[in-house]
Design goal:
The structure holds 2 protein chains of 2 kinds. Chain A is α/β, with parallel strands linked by helices. Chain A is built from 12 helices and 18 strands. In chain A, the strands form 5 sheets. Chain A has a 7-stranded mixed beta sheet, sandwiched between helices. A 4-stranded mixed beta sheet of chain A has the order 1-2-4-3. In chain A, helix 2 crosses helix 11, helix 3 runs parallel beside helix 4 and helix 5 packs parallel to helix 6. By secondary structure, chain B is mainly α. Chain B is about 75% helix and about 5% strand. In chain B, helix 2 runs antiparallel to helix 9. Classes of the chains: A alpha/beta, B mainly alpha.
Chain lengths: ~400, ~300
Amino acid sequence: MVKRRAWAVLGAVALVLAVGGPASPKVEGDTIILGAAVSLTGKYSINGKNTQDGYELGVKRINEMGGVRVGEKYYRIKVIYYDDESTPARGAQLAERLINQDGVKFMLGPYSSGLTKAIAPVTEKYRIPMVEGNGADRALFTQGYKYMFAVLSTSDQYLREAMSLAAEQAQKQGRDPKTLKVAMAFENDPFSMDVRDGVLEDVQRLGMKIVIDDKLPPELNDMAATLTKVRAVKPDILVVSGHARGATLAVRQVSDMKVDVPMLAVTHCDSAKVAETLGKAAEYALCASQWDRSLSYKDKWFGTADEYAKRFEKEFRYDPPYQAAESTAALLVFVDAFERAGSFDTEKVRDAIAATDLMTFYGPVKFDKTGKNIAKPMVLYQIQDGKYKVVAPTKWASTKLIHPIPLWSKR
Amino acid sequence: MVDNLLLLFNAPILSVQLLVDGILIGAIFALAAYGMALVWGVMDIINIAQGEFVMLGGYVTFFLAAAGVHPLYTVPVAAAALYLLGWVLYRTVVFRVVDKDMFISILATFGISIVLQQLANELFEADVRTAESGLGTLFFADGVIVVSQIKLVAFFCALVLGGALFLFLKRSRLGLAIRATAQNARAARIMGVNTDRVFATTFALNAAICGAAGSLVVMTWLVHPYLGLAYTLRAFMIVTVAGLGNMASVVFASLGLGAAENFAGFLLGTEYQAAFVFSLLVAILVWRNARLSRQRKYLK
């Protein structure tokens, strides 16, 4: 009889363990555990790695400095990662797993808007605060999410600066910006479509004319057809967004086909390393960026942006792209919120995050009601002599824009 | 779309540009397709890992170029390296599925393709890579038509490789054995052909051709671990349209596909390029089936 009861108890325990239990540890001893699904394989694996490295550097630095002070106690930070294989369905599953099985109560975002879109409904359902640094899709902030916060500028902002810059330059040359012809080539994914929306709004606002509006397929391997069109209609500005692959192809083939266009603006050329790998072909291209190490932002954890970059280089042996910097910033938002909340209660932490007003090496962070960071602007580089030089917004530009791009026959 | 059509009417020279570009692109597809037709014909295996061989060939060139070798000289190295890989894959995996049901071989090569893809991702990382050939661009018709020299080189490499393969199959003893095996493996075996060796050579040869193609791809465009599928699909489509027996029709189908794809990209937008190509495949298959069924009626 006793034996039988013992078995029943054992069975119940096993069952509880199997389903994860209602109150599995979110804090193990003096370590607070966060969770993240990141893309370590699949099409986002470069940027997924950047994201993970960004988080890891933040974790390492915070732990080095003694940890997070919550109440009277200092806690170390640990992050549990899973590989979401760059697929949204897998991302959502892993979020469930992190929350239900691993008992994670605080989530860091995945890489890309698509993955964030898949994961946000899950964290929202369980009321788990998530701070993300790599989902810039505007649609993320129209769902009324209360537990999701983003430290980066939304994706529609990416190439808007380029449109203003084109208009500015036209006026300087005594030309009406309304006469400018715009060619667009955007990958057909949520991120690039948002970038396109932003560009479209500016095109309408400034009264420019769209002459090409191509959508690039995700399996893009060749842009010859689009660029043949560009050579024929001679636009004043060509804007391209298609992650690292789109950036590499655009820059490479514009050079191979000798396409003359006064202004070429692309996204992701820093993660694609176009200046480094394509050399002369990449000269004069404009690249949108969330962040740059030459900016003068500063915080108590890393010091200046440049000091952050040096620390990152030492740890991971590559120059930190903005994807890594914004991931680190997402972690810093949590650290700051834990300290202000003085507790690991999810609701208190959520409210503390919402009230964030923080300066980081990555830039200022302050969230609006929808959870997006409204304090930090975008940056535009131009590749000059093989280096990325900040040319816009003109306010912080360390370098002067070269415009128009010299003709291929004159180089 | 109407705009694009008008553009083409106003500047007919553009269609020459599209045609030239398309044909040059098609030549690289032709290489992957040759190899697929060879393996399919001789071993009755549809090699799903075709595109991965192309991708790995690209990486060979990329790494050698990064080490300071001029990328053009790396084409034979890429071919040799892939020949070796193909041979090893045959000896470890493919020989087990040669006489089996086609679905088993599809499954096996599909498995190989996933393993190669993920290995590449693990070893080389997912960065997009390119190799600079340092070749320039040719201008024709007052600079309206541009042809990058690397595409021309790729085109001629494809022709030479194709020609060499053709001669090898026609003239050499091993080529004869390969053709005999393709006709009837059992009869060939009875006649003293070492079919196992023939299979190993065929599979390795295919990998080598793909490797050379990949080497040209990385000089013309770029390479990344997930590049393969596009080449597998196109090779499959070309072989389906052209049939197994005739190398010349494989070449024409490839060049035609390249050109059709480029025109479709121009007229419909790049996003519909692939959709157009596969609709074309369906149309060709339906048309061919209709024609065959008419012939069948006569036979009755």
